[in-house]
Specification:
307 residues, alpha+beta, ten-stranded antiparallel β-sheet, 10 strands
Amino acid sequence: MVLKAVTIALAIASIGVLALPLDAQTPRAGGPAQGAGAAGAPGGGGAQGRQGGQGGEAGRGRGAAAPAPPVRRLPDGKPNLQGVYMADPGGANYGLERRTPADPMTPRTRGVVVDPPDGILPLQPWARQEVVNRERPERGYDDPTAHCFVAGVPRSMYVPSPMQILQPPGYVVILHERMSWRIIPLDRKHDLPDHVRLWQGDSVGHWEGDTLVVESKNFNGRTWLNEVGDMTSHALTVVERFTPVNARRIDYRATLTDPVVYTRPFTIAFPLNLQDDELLEVACLEDDQDLKHLKDVKDEFEKSQKK
C-alpha cells in the first residue's frame, strides 16, 4: 500500500511541474524580510515574501480585503488540504526563539514558540550549552542539511521553500521542494519497531474534526531544528496539527516532547499559505559553494587549536 501511495503521489506531483521565476526564490541566507510579520498573519515576514504575501489588498489603495473562501472539502466531507503552500515562520530556520543577532549575516527571527508563553525553549542546561556552541562559525559544517541530508520534522515545514500537500485515498503526502517527502498513512494500526530510526521519523495521521493530527517518532536524533543548532534527540516525539482556517490558509502547530534534551514539551505555531505556484526542480549540491566554505571555516578553526 505504501508503494502504491508513493506511486500515486509522485505521479500527481510530476504533472506539469514548472520552474518558478528566479526572483521568486528564497535564499538560504534568509534575506532581509525574515521575521518581519506578526505570528499568524498571512503576508507577514519570512518566506511568505516569495509571493508578496497572500494577505489581501489592504494598504494598496483597494480598500479592505475580500473575505477568503471557506475551507475546501473532499467528497467524503474531510477538508481538502491539497495545493502548494509556503510557510510564514518568521525565520524559524534561523532560530525558534525571538532573536535579534548582532551579526548582520544572521537573520533576525520573530519567534514561533507559543508554549511556554515566554517563548523560550525549555532546554536542559547541558543542551543550552550545546546550542550556544553550535552557533560558532566552525560548527556550521555540522548541520546535516549542509550535507544534503533531509531537514527532519518539524524543520521540513519551515525551511524557506514551498511544499505540496496531496491526499490520495488513505494517506496524506507532503512533497517538499527541498528534496524530501513524507508519506503519512491515516489508517495504519501498527508502529515501526523501536530499533528502526529515520531522519524524518515515522508518521501516522488521523482526523480530529477538521484538524489533521500527525504523530511522528522513531527519529535518529541527528537532525538540527535550524541553522543555529536548536536540537533534539532520538527520544523525540512530534505531534503536528494542521487546521484549515479558510481555502487559502492552514494553521500549523507542532508539539515536541524530548525528555533527553528538554525539561518539558514545547509548541511552535505559524501559518501555511496557499500559493498559486508549482514546485521547482531542485538539486542540493548543484552550483552550491556552502559546504566547501563551511569546511574551510571548520578546518581553519581546528588548525588554530593545534598551534
